[in-house]
Specification:
globular, about 170 residues, alpha/beta, 4-stranded parallel β-sheet
């Protein structure tokens, strides 16, 4: 988008917001937005927020769950950032009558980093053996999603990914 003229960027953003609103209003499936606090997930959440905020409050009926994974081995700064970010999102959602609910997901104790490393003797994660992302981030998010699917039948999962992002 950086090589576009300002008017082209505005038009593209308007189309994105229109698309988000159209998809949001198309059915009753709740949305689950993966949020890490990074550029991609923050952009996705901001696009959704801005689009849905433009709807009249009586049309903002479908729940949007914002989930963030805490591996329980993050530095205190990162862990605090997740907590503060989710709290700010939740507070702003309440103040603006947005249908957004935040959740921090964590791994089950038996799948935690220390149980795997010390208890099961797994080697420290490496490029060849990346066991931690699946168990510490993806599985807790999947568990949350499955619980919403059990409640609503199905959900729409939203992830922010750059066009240039590697497939891996």
């Amino acid at each position: 988008m950086s090589k576009m003229a300002a008017g082209e960027k505005d038009e593209m953003l308007k189309r994105i917001h229109d698309d988000v609103r159209e998809i949001y209003l198309a059915d009753s499936r709740p949305w689950v937005v993966g949020y890490s606090g990074g550029k991609d997930s923050t952009t996705a959440l901001q696009l959704i927020w801005t689009a849905i905020a433009a709807l009249p409050p009586d049309q903002r009926t479908k729940k949007i769950y914002v989930i963030s994974s805490d591996t329980l081995v993050e530095t205190p700064v990162v862990s605090n950032y997740i907590d503060v970010s989710l709290e700010r999102i939740a507070n702003a959602a309440r103040a603006q009558s947005m249908p957004i609910e935040t959740h921090k997901v964590v791994p089950e104790v038996d799948k935690s980093f220390w149980v795997n490393l010390i208890g099961r003797g797994y080697p420290a994660p490496s490029r060849r053996f990346r066991w931690c992302t699946e168990r510490l981030k993806i599985e807790p998010a999947n568990d949350f999603i499955k619980s919403r699917v059990a409640e609503f039948g199905e959900v729409v999962m939203v992830l922010g990914v750059r066009r240039q992002e590697s497939a891996t």
